[in-house]
Fold this protein.
Amino acid sequence: MAITIRPFGIDSLGRRINCYTMENRHGYSVSIINYGASIQSIKVPDRCGKIEDVVLGFDTLEGYQNNTAYIGATIGRVCNRIDGASYDYEGKRYTLDANDGLNTLHGGREGFHGKFWIAQTTEGEGRDFVTMYLNSHAGEGGFPGSMRTQVVFSFGDDNRLEINYLATASEDTPVNLTNHSYFNLSGKGTIKDHVLSVDAPTFLDVNEENIPLGTVHTVENTVYDLRSPVLIEKAIKTGNHPTFKRQKGFDVSFRLSGKGLREVAMLHHPDSGRTIRVRTDQPALQVYSGQFLNEQGKGGAHHGAYAGIALETQHEPDALHQPSFRSIILKAGDTYHTQTCYAFSVE
Ligand code: GLA
């Protein structure tokens, strides 16, 4: 396969941002920029071969620099919310950036989504690789130890975008990495005419600040039961769970079935046939239906309410304060490695 590189802008320190595009032999392509290690576009055909860009994004670097919805970005050091912007570990209190009321959201003000990453490309037989490197300094955002992160995006003739997240740290630190792409398989309008399934028997309920209460609930008889495919518009119209009504849509952490790398969710657009299957080794999936989006996006498109849906694979949010959730501490010297795959098809 082949990777093309085009200039995307120069940041305030004079560093070059490029857009790296991996195109496969079916004409599908994935573009990544080294600002925020962000997915800038994913182009996929419909049943008639018509290609559309199926992720929200921006045409310019400025768009990404002013991106308040984390569109397309790699999220770290810790994605999702941390209650009270602090945590205790081995007798010490760590104070983090409060950038979402009193809480930390997506790594705080110094999150990975706003960083300059070093890129390396590798072209292969039937599969290309764009690897993004970031060194997060000790104390950045309040997190301990320096952390080296590698995000390997690879795309192949099998129409699969694989993302491998790797990290090592000089001190024990919490880590929870994800990607914050918003998908819209019609390439325009809203995702209300999409169908979604998520293989999760339970979800985490949250308070008014979207912090998990620590309680785990069955999806049965709620709008969160997506074990069979559900039309998103129907869920939005009829969902009457109090949290769902307050949030005006999905903004929920699902506890996924199974372990290891497995298929956990499917997003399908019946009109075009475009479909994404999400595979991951992670225990949770944050689904956000984009109800509060309000950004000026690619090609002059306005990304408004429900313009895209984020399917963020991760560990449970606020795990630092919930002893019953799996730990997100990476021990100094250990290697963090997680994998997520978005498989595209026309069905
Ligand atoms: C961020 C989060 C989403 C959602 C919105 C709410 O973008 O990533 O999950 O909570 O905030 O505005």
Residues 69-70, 210, 251, 286, 288, 292 surround alpha-D-galactopyranose (CB under 6 Å). The two ends are 25 Å apart (CA to CA). The helical segments are 61-65, 232-238, 242-247.
